[in-house]
Each structure stands twice: as structure tokens, then as C-alpha cells.
Fold:
Amino acid sequence: MEKHKCGWCVGDTLYEKYHDNEWGVPLHDDQLLFEFLILETFQAGLSWITILRKRENFRDAFHNFDYKMIAQYTDEKKDELLQDKGIIRNKLKVKSAVTNAQNFIKIQDEFGSFDSYIWNFVQGKPIVNTWKNHKDCPANTQVSDTISKDLKKRGFKFVGSTVIYAFMQAIGMVNDHEIGCFRYKEV
Structure:
């Protein structure tokens, strides 16, 4: 018998694999947190499946999401990225990846790690919701509003509340699996 999954992922193998293995799993590794932050910022205004399909291209184009390298990207490197058909070629988003990498490092310097900074907003524990249907899940919350405002104050770009809520879902700060989903209790 097939396991019940959240309705948003059903029907696409890549989506289902991401849902089954990554989405909503609490992450505490700064490198992975940065990867998801960058992917979510590029997703702004697009569908997540578009980003998932280009994820490996992003990984190749952005030095495996090495934020220390990305923070030093030159204008020439940014121009090179804008020619890369494998990623989202948006000038403001490419520029923001560099700015966000620089600010990510500043947060690490201030808090010891980005993990310490971001998880402090939920006191180190995931918020567990009880959605019966993924369509009942909000696009943003007071917590994502607060994080968004703080990140913007720190100079981050493309970090609106909806983007941040999607980031929180992806990295397991919030468990938004449907209560009937097999992953709900696992994460």
C-alpha cells in the first residue's frame, strides 16, 4: 500500500523525492541553510518545482553554495552567471545572492553560526502545525514576518515574509506536513 503524502507533491517524482527526504527535516548545518536560503530567494515569484529542476545547475554555478566564495564574487562572475541558462537569470537575484552571502557571514560572526541566529526565532524547536490539507497552510506567519524584517534590516534581499516562511518549512523550523502524511510524525 502506498503511503499518504502531502497533496502538493503528489504526481511529480522529483517533488515526491524532495518531500519524502528533505522537506521539513530540521536542518542545523550552515552550508545547507545557506543553500536553501539562496534557492528560496531565487524561487520568489516562481514555482518551487522550477527551482528543484534547476537545483544541480545552481549547485554547479554557485560553487556548491559555498557562501565564502559567493561573498567574493566579482561583477565579471555575476555577468557570467547571467549567461548561464541552467539557472534563473535574474540580475537582481544574482546580485542578491552575493549580498546575502556577505550578510550571512556577518550573522555567523555575530551569533557564532547562522543556525544559532535563525533557530532562535523558534526557541530552537520546530513549530508543529496540524493541517489536514496543505491548502490550509498559510503563506506567511508572524514569525516569518519577524524574521523577514530582521533579515532586511541586516541588508538581505528577496527575503519577504512568504519567502521566509517557505524557507522555514524547507529547513524544518515549521512542520507543515499534512497530519495524514507519513512524514508528519517522522520529522
Remarks:
- The radius of gyration is 16 Å.
- The chain has a mean pLDDT of 96.
- The chain has ten helices and two strands.
